[in-house]
């Protein structure tokens, strides 16, 4: 009886030690992830990013049970070599990482002269779906990890909009234009904008692309399941709110900028 008790005690200790070794040392090491999953590009981006000192599992939901389940799926041929994992907002806002005040504030993207307000995007439902930190801070930026891509902004704010009605929306994101700008070697004066000259009078075309979702994209994940294709609310709720997929997993890009300027812009701005 005493021998059996000692045996079970030793076995329990070994199992506990093995569990914590696998969970904390093996599964918890970022380099181990790429041995099983096809994530080399993401790993390389992470290794060069500002998050390079943060282990994968500090952000991503994954553990020993997931790893064991993955091995069983691999042996039965039902595994996904490109797994999709969530990053709960709470992991981004945990102590020692990003503070909650950051998601209740405005920031200015100087490169594009865009004012971004976190609060309505993070604290409210957008089009019937809840956005996450990862909805904007994604992996679609070439060579970066968890960076913001303005393409996401363009998709939400500009896709399917009538270009002729964009003037009233410009200042939602953009601050007032600089008084003088250099355009094709000539100094243009924006003072006439204050006198009622609309943006679209010179910026004749600022949008290209509709951000549509080709139906074939559905088949990348689903087989013969497109019955909900036209139910945008349901699709966004499942793919954005629940699965946290990058927008461009499905959507095509929308371009935004000085795509076409009015031919008489120099005359107008004198």
Describe this structure in words.
The N and C termini lie far apart (99 Å). This protein has helices spanning 2-26, 30-36, 40-48, 56-59, 64-76, 89-92, 118-123, 133-136, 150-158, 170-173, 199-202, 232-242, 265-268; strands spanning 106-109, 114-117, 125-126, 129-130, 137-138, 147-148, 180-183, 186-189, 205-208, 255-260. A two-stranded antiparallel sheet has the order 1-2. It is elongated and about 95 Å long. The mean pLDDT is 77. The protein has a domain at 1-85. By secondary structure, the chain is α+β, with helices and mostly antiparallel strands.
Question: Outline of this structure?
Answer:
This protein is of the alpha+beta class. The chain is 39% helix and 13% strand.
Keyword list:
about 270 residues, alpha+beta, two-stranded antiparallel sheet, 13 helices, about 40% helix, about 15% strand, elongated
Task: Describe the strand arrangement of the main beta sheet, using strand numbers.
Answer: 1-2
Determine Rg (CA atoms, Å): 25 Å
> How does the major sheet shape up?
2 strands, antiparallel
- Secondary structural class: alpha+beta
Q: How would you sum up the global shape?
A: elongated
* Amino-to-carboxy terminus distance: 99 Å
Mean of all residue-level pLDDT scores: 77
SSE arrangement, N to C: HHHHHHEEHEEHEEHHEEHEHEH
Poorly predicted parts: none
Question: Percent of residues in beta strands?
Answer: 5-15%
Number of helices: 13
Number of strands: 10
């Amino acid at each position: 009886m005493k021998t059996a008790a000692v045996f079970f005690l030793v076995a329990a200790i070994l199992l506990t030690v093995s569990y914590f070794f696998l969970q904390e040392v093996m599964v918890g090491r970022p380099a181990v992830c790429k041995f099983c999953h096809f994530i080399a590009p993401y790993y390389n981006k992470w290794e060069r990013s500002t998050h390079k000192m943060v282990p994968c599992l500090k952000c991503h939901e994954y553990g020993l049970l997931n790893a064991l389940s993955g091995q069983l799926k691999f042996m039965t041929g039902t595994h996904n070599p490109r797994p999709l994992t969530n990053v709960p907002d709470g992991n981004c806002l945990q102590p020692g990482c990003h503070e909650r005040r950051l998601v209740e504030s405005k920031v200015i993207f100087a490169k594009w002269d865009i004012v971004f307000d976190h609060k309505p995007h993070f604290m409210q439902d957008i089009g019937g779906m809840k956005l996450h930190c990862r909805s904007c801070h994604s992996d679609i930026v070439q060579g970066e990890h968890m960076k913001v891509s303005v393409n996401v902004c363009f998709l939400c704010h500009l896709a399917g909009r009538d270009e002729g009605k964009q003037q009233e929306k410009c200042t939602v994101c953009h601050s007032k234009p600089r008084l003088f700008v250099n355009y094709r070697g000539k100094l243009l004066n924006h003072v006439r904008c204050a006198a009622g000259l609309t943006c679209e009078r010179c910026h004749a075309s600022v949008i290209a692309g509709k951000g549509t979702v080709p139906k074939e994209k559905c088949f990348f994940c689903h087989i013969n399941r497109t019955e909900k294709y036209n139910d945008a609310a349901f699709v966004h709720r499942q793919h954005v709110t629940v699965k946290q997929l990058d927008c461009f997993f499905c959507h095509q890009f929308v371009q935004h900028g000085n795509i076409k300027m009015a031919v008489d812009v120099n005359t107008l701005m004198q």
